[in-house]
Design goal:
The complex is a heterodimer of chains A (229) and B (123).
Chain A: H1 2-6, H2 9-26, H3 37-52, H4 56-67, H5 70-75, H6 77-85, H7 92-117, H8 121-127, H9 134-139, H10 141-144, H11 148-172, H12 178-200, H13 202-227
Helix pairs in contact in A: 2-3, 2-4, 6-13, 7-12, 7-13, 8-11, 11-12, 12-13
Chain B: H1 2-22, H2 29-42, H3 52-60, H4 67-72, H5 77-80, H6 84-121
Helix pairs in contact in B: 1-2, 1-3
Chain lengths: 229, 123
């Protein structure tokens, strides 16, 4: 009887939304990148599925429907980029160069470090898109023949580590320029870095959101050149 | 009108998918759609108020859409095996390097721009 309910898409959707709602409420006053509501909500879902013995395949009936919204949501990033272009006049070149260099270093260092540490091929491939926003990373899975769930996890761990390490580096090198701060946050840790950059200031947020867009485009180009053509 | 905005986003998503399908390279549909929307905004064929209310809602809650693939990791733990620590370590090192390289190169370009700017202002 319970099986006929959990296999419905409504089950997976409701569980996801409820888990997110509760996680956000609980973490409302916790300002740490580690207490990411998306990660916590995912852990809550996993725990509930484990305890009740409901198969993940049932949950994913609803999960797949939610994931269909990733495409339209990603497209809306263009609106965010457009709204920020005006305030960044004169800074287009540093953003373009910084994000391009960052995208290259991200891919090159993953390839190098994976060889160095003997990481398995599937994990190495799933790390190539770690610095781009989740939606673009997901769509690059067929290009890099990576594992979808590991890809998403890589992107999120990258985002969290960037928001932890980034501000330390900025303080260490006494970087005061808000645009510079935003470029580095957005390029190295995409949307998660951008939401942290927005907390630092309006200009940081604007630069970060444009940087994450450029990083995404450049990464797509580089990976298509490396693995497809 | 929200309904019009949703329709517009659906239309651009569809265009992105079609363009991605027609191109000889595997350009992701979302990237194609994003570029189409950005161009339409830049040439002012679409005004921000045609789309922004729905766009901001989708952007604000985009993270929720990534919960299902993360939950799926629970079924893929065998891929990590004994390498979880190495895997996280590589992410941390690579992210630090990426951050430093981006910061350094962008700072260099800014310094270069200031130098050129100063030269121009000098008679």
């Amino acid at each position: 009887m319970i099986d006929t309910i959990t296999v419905l898409p409504e089950f997976g959707i409701t569980l996801t939304l409820l888990a997110y709602l509760v996680s956000r409420r609980v973490l409302r006053n916790v300002h740490s990148p580690i207490a990411n509501p998306i990660v916590v909500a995912s852990l809550v879902c996993i725990a509930i599925l484990r305890v009740t013995g409901i198969p993940i395949s049932h949950y994913q009936q609803g999960g797949d429907l939610l994931m269909m919204l990733i495409l339209p949501a990603t497209i809306c990033l263009a609106v965010m980029v457009y709204e920020n272009l005006d305030s960044l006049k004169g800074n287009y070149l540093p953003i373009a160069v910084g994000s391009t260099v960052g995208a290259f270093v991200s891919i090159a260092s993953v390839l190098l470090l994976s060889k160095l540490f003997g990481l398995s091929l599937i994990l190495e491939r799933s790390l190539l898109t770690k610095s781009v926003t989740t939606a673009i990373a997901i769509e690059l899975v067929p290009v890099t023949s990576a594992d979808l769930s590991i890809v998403v996890m890589s992107v999120i761990i990258t985002g969290i580590s960037g928001t932890l390490i980034g501000p330390v580096i900025l303080r260490l090198f006494k970087v005061k320029n808000p645009v510079l701060q935003g470029i580095a946050m957005g390029t190295s840790s995409h949307v998660i870095g951008t939401s942290r950059a927005m907390e630092l200031g309006k200009q940081q947020g604007a630069a970060s959101s444009v940087a994450l867009f450029v990083t995404g485009l450049v990464t797509v180009g580089m990976l298509l050149a490396l693995y497809h053509i | 009108m929200i309904f019009g905005q949703i329709t517009l986003i659906a239309l651009i998503s569809l265009s992105g998918s079609i363009v991605s399908h027609l191109l000889p390279i595997a350009l992701p549909p979302s990237v194609a759609g994003m570029l189409i929307l950005l161009v339409l905004l830049l040439v002012k064929a679409i005004r921000p108020h045609h789309i922004d209310r729905t766009a901001h809602i989708l952007l604000a809650y985009m993270g929720v859409l990534f919960i299902p693939p993360i939950v799926d990791v629970a079924d893929h733990t065998e891929l990590l095996g004994s390498q979880s620590f190495t895997y996280v370590l590589i992410i941390v090192i690579s992210t630090t390097l990426t951050f430093l390289a981006t910061l350094g190169s962008a700072a260099l370009v800014m310094r270069f721009q200031r130098m050129v700017g100063k030269k121009r202002t000098q008679p």
